[in-house]
Amino acid sequence: MKVIVDTPIWSYALRSKKEGYEAYVKELETLISDQRVVILGSIRQEVLSGYSVKSKFEKLNSKLSYFENEQIIDGDYVQAAIFSNTCRSKGVQGSHVDFLICAVAFRLKSEIFTTDKDFFHYKKHTPIQLFSI
Fold this sequence. Notes:
Distance between the termini: 14 Å
Structural class: alpha/beta
Order of helices and strands: EHHEHHHHEHE
Radius of gyration: 15 Å
């Protein structure tokens, strides 16, 4: 099964030297090696936006180019709006990008690998699957 890797996981692997993230980084390495990683353009943009030094940006962009952007289709936007409306009716707010990630994951029948706690709230009201380590 493919796994959409969200920005926080990429950040742990690329930037963080803090203890406690090793398991996430190790799992990302395994997913990469198993060729199960899916990336969306919006996630790629968020990851790359953290690099203002041109040489570091270009190096990371080159590495991330290994992963093709998963195409977003018109139906994903509609599904994202449905998920947003459903969650909002239950008192759960979220970003448009988060719900788009949920919609693509739902269409692909893939899991979302994240530590963003908002997704755990979305999961209560939508049929998304979260990847756990």
